[in-house]
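TL;DR need structure tokens for one chain.
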Amino acid sequence: MSKLRRLFPALVFLAAMAGTFVLGQAIRQRQPFDPSSLPAPTLPEPPPIPEDIESPNVFVSPERLVARLEDPELRLVDARSSGRCAEERIAGAACGDVEALAARCGDAADLLNCIRRSLGDLGLDGSETVVLYGEGGEAEDHLGLGRLYWWMDWAGVAEIEILYDGAEGWRRIGGPVEQGGSSPTPADFTAAPRLAPAATAEWVYEQFGPGGAQALDLRDGVDWTTVGYRAPEVFSAGHIPYALPYDVRSWLDGGRWPTPREGWGRFLELGPREGTYLTPGTEIVLYGEGPETDQLGLAYLLLRHMGIDVRVFAGGWDEWTADPDRPVVRVASAAEVAEALGELVHREVGATAPMPFYDLREVRDHGRGYLPGSEVLPWPDFPSGLEASLEQTWSGIDRRMTPIVLYCYGRDCIRSWEASVVAARSGFLDIRWLREGVEGWDAAGLPLWVDEGASGAGSDP
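>> reply
TL;DR here they are.
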């Protein structure tokens, strides 16, 4: 027993050393936090559809239009091709081939005045109530009507309506028709242009971000709520900060125009991720490549139909990027970020990225696995802490020439989407949004740095 008593301290020491070895092995082998280990969050429902929708009278039924044909202030414009209009048109309608109008004015340096002159050629002075119609029931037909509606509203036409079901509906009720091309008497279009729905690049710059107008990018023609919020190609290559990609054509059920309530039901599903939605009452600004983007007019028409405040940035992406001092957000892939980091990706923990590189997650999650060379600055601290962090780690960089890279947990995390606005307001012009975050980096088989000793459960992004 006395011998055992003498050996006891040595046994304790050996046990402690063994425990330290096992613990050290655990630290080195600890895997980064796997967000899939968290219980699935309960997603909130979209906001309720407003009860008091103030919708203008955008659509008119064929039956109601028949009763108004003798109104001296009423003008009918057939938006179909000139050939189709000449075959058969509603009695008294002018042939206003929207494709021909787009070809004439779409690339004009002064688009608005070109539109106004063209409307004068149709015999309009802007004081009338104009009813537009197409063939009816076709999505492409709706695109043309939307464009003409937007252009007429911008030009200053007093009242604009769309004939529901178009020429098809008119034939169904046996409304009066005539054949042959129209020859309206040209007029001076004298109505003042309606500039409130038109957005300039300067206005968009002042408005982007929380609390301002929400930009919808219509270039890809993709409703990302239907594809798992996967960023589409053109949007990924560059977009206005805080913009969201969208496609309003998804609202057209078999070519049928939605009611205001149906439109609201789709609109309220829009957001940066599932379970995060736009706030009713948010003003919307639409943009495409330029004024020729098909969806601009259709989106404007549908949102106006729903009573939503909407503007069109007609110059779109072409005008935004024409000024090198305007910020651009790019959705970067893991491979692109790894290429920018170069050999740093495979170095030991401790080096710093050559450009500002921020992890927007919580500190405890950063330590358990982060991208090489990145600094942790959790989103709640990012707006107030960015300047001090830049001064400490990346002092003296040229923000106009140097990109900033932002990431968080994965596609379902919107911290870096929000942080892109802060970066843009801080003078960065090239903002790289690693949207797939740590999840995408890990899935690409790229190494993560781990701070030894980091522990604890991960956070819910």
